[in-house]
Amino acid sequence: MLSLKYIRDNMDYVQNSLTQKKSNINLSKLLEYDDQRRNCLKEVEELRAERNKVSVSIAQLKKAGKDAQDDILAMRNVSDRIKDIEVELKKIEDNIAKDIYYVPNIVHSSVPVGKNETSNVEIKKWGDVPDFSFTPKDHLTLGEDLKLFDFKRAVKMAGSGFPLYIGLGSKLERALINFMLDFHVSKHNYTELLPPFLAHTDAMQNTGQLPKFKDDMYQIPEDSLYCIPTAEVPVTNIHQGEIIPESDLPKKYAAYSACFRREAGSYGKDTRGLIRVHQFNKVELVKFVHPDKSYEELESLLENAEAILQALGLHYRVLELCSGDLSFSAAKCYDIEVWSPSEKKYLEVSSCSNFENFQSRRGNIRYRKNSTGKSELLHTLNGSGVATPRLMVALLETYQQEDGTIKLPAALHPFMNMDIISIP
């Protein structure tokens, strides 16, 4: 969330960011509400001062045995006026809250300007595109032949878009999660968390999912809870309302969770198999960092996520997102896309973002400066480290053999207790 003061002091810059992010929020109307709020607060302050003055006068008149009825009536009128203004102030503040939570984060000056994903900038490729001496199968065919998952039976349970892993498919999914968690904890010094998979409205609002993306999430209205779309939500809220000592920064967390997304309007878009599903598993990386070091920490976060794909020997590329493709809450973002041999294209498996103080302002997450003892908003970052469905797509397709088996990369051998997945 942006502060009203920041919006007022940087109106042109904020408006330019909104234009780049294709937001139609009326900032002038928002600042008009703020002017009304300021005027109300000023009038209430003046009336309270007047009421206090009259109260003293009443006490003096009564002490002197004089009639204070006129002053008492005047004080009642002042009190009634204060109540009326406070009612109006509540309406104004509700209007501000309703609008300001729809204002997206500003775009960092280093972000390339563009309207949509066609303007994203490829900044890196790693590894080689797999070369086969045979016609490779897609992950869906491989998975069904090897009895790794069963989408037809999953439909009986929850409808389309929900995977059912079976046997070695379940084991491989679990192996990927454990491998990634162990990797980030042991090699990158993250603290492992296992958070709730449900979150309440405030938590969703703090990370920017609400109110804008309410229709994209699964809801449990009777309990005012949502199924989390990412572990970013509960993990970012771990320090909601807290002040962290500067010496404790950065704080780094790695969390596995199931993720739930309605993906409204996505029908027909890569819906076969694991490429686009409503429920999936992901290891999320979240950082709480000093504002002066957040972009340095973003580069480190990107490297941490990349390291997973490198350890698995999977070809991928990194994109720097343009302004028009940035998420609502991000000031800057990199996407990591892994290569799918059957699709002959890259599939996103991670987004690494710097939110600056956008989320920390919503969640009131601060750090205390060693030098002054004062508290300031810190910066939050997160990135997928990584999501499993498309990772499994790339893994199965990249390491398939001509006989239909999967030759697993060495990094997974300790977690699978095997090096080849064979046809049962």
Automatic annotation (TrEMBL):
GO cellular component: cytoplasm
Catalytic activity: tRNA(Ser) + L-serine + ATP = L-seryl-tRNA(Ser) + AMP + diphosphate + H(+); tRNA(Sec) + L-serine + ATP = L-seryl-tRNA(Sec) + AMP + diphosphate + H(+)
Subcellular location: Cytoplasm
SUPFAM superfamilies registered for this protein in UniProt: Class II aaRS and biotin synthetases, tRNA-binding arm
Enzyme class at the top of the EC tree: ligase
Entry EC number(s): 6.1.1.11
Record-annotated Aminoacyl-transfer RNA synthetases class-II family profile domain positions: 138-409
Gene3D superfamilies: Bira Bifunctional Protein, Domain 2, Serine-tRNA synthetase, tRNA binding domain
Name of the protein in its database record: Serine--tRNA ligase
